[in-house]
């Protein structure tokens, strides 16, 4: 087998394993925040051991006794599950950070809009009460108008301040929406909830991440075994692979 392809297999296995291990360790450290440093050390050693065990099982499967083989297979499956859960937790937290921020901004925007509407309603009610005084009582109407001006001025100032805050929050919400906007668009395209789409995507990532890393470790070990088995015969094997197949029926005739 071509040496370059073997190097590519090993590089791909290390790349996928390293990225998956990084996500998993970060997710587990967040899950056990009280002992994050200890969890990082434990998870890192287990991730390294998992790759070694996977390679060992593939290369020496026939030389391992049944009990040890069973234990290593079970341990490998548990380690894959732990890594997958760590990746799921890490990606979930990454989404929830932006999602919860957007939910909080939406709540604050709605609160400011409701407050602004109450201010406008109070201004309108005060003005309507003044306007309801008949013209025959012009002195009372003038007195009410004069007395209400400080209150109306304060309400208008509150409304202007409310609009400035609302404008700033709208800008912040727009920035956050650009981060989660694509997933919202995907959810709207399929007519489902955003959280459900995110869960499906995370499960898809998890389902291929660590199993792919294990398969790449197997593939790299297989390539190395073939390289060792046919060492020195690479040219002959290549010539046989490129040779035209012999038509045995014509030869026998």
Overview of this structure, please?
The chain has one domain (3-234). With 253 residues, it is mainly α. The chain is rod-shaped. 88% of the residues lie in helices and 0% in strands.
Topology at a glance:
Elements lengths: L2 H29 L4 H24 L6 H67 L5 H53 L3 H36 L4 H9 L5 H5 L1
Helix pairs in contact: 1-2, 1-3, 1-5, 2-3, 2-5, 3-4, 3-5, 4-5
How far the N terminus sits from the C terminus, by CA atoms, comes to 36 Å
- Number of separate domains: 1
Could you report the average pLDDT, rounded to the nearest whole number?
A: 80
Radius of gyration: 34 Å
Helical residue percent band: over 70%
Structural class by secondary-structure content: mainly alpha
Number of beta-strand segments: 0
Poorly predicted spans: 248-253
H/E element order: HHHHHHH
């Amino acid at each position: 087998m071509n040496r370059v392809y073997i190097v590519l297999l090993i590089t791909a296995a290390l790349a996928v394993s390293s990225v998956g291990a990084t996500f998993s360790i970060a997710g587990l450290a967040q899950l056990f925040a009280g002992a994050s440093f200890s969890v990082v050390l434990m998870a890192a050693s287990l991730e390294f051991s998992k790759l070694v065990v996977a390679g060992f099982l593939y290369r020496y499967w026939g030389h391992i006794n049944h009990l040890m083989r069973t234990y290593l297979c079970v341990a490998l499956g548990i380690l894959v599950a732990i890594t997958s859960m760590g990746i799921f937790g890490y990606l979930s937290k990454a989404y929830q950070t932006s999602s919860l921020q957007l939910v909080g901004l939406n709540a604050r925007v709605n609160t400011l809009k409701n407050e602004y509407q109450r201010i406008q309603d109070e201004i309108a009610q005060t003005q309507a009460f003044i306007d309801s005084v008949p013209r025959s009582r012009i002195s009372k109407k003038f007195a009410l108008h004069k007395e209400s001006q400080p209150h109306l001025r304060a309400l208008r100032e509150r409304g202007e301040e409310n609009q400035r805050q609302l404008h700033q929050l709208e800008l912040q919400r727009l920035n956050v929406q650009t981060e989660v906007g694509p997933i919202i668009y995907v959810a709207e395209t399929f007519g489902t909830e955003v959280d459900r789409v995110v869960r499906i995507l995370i499960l898809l990532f998890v389902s291929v991440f660590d199993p792919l890393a294990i398969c790449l470790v197997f593939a790299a070990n297989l390539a190395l075994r073939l390289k060792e088995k046919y060492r020195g015969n690479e040219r002959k094997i290549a010539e046989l692979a490129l040779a035209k197949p012999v038509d045995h029926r014509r030869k026998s005739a």
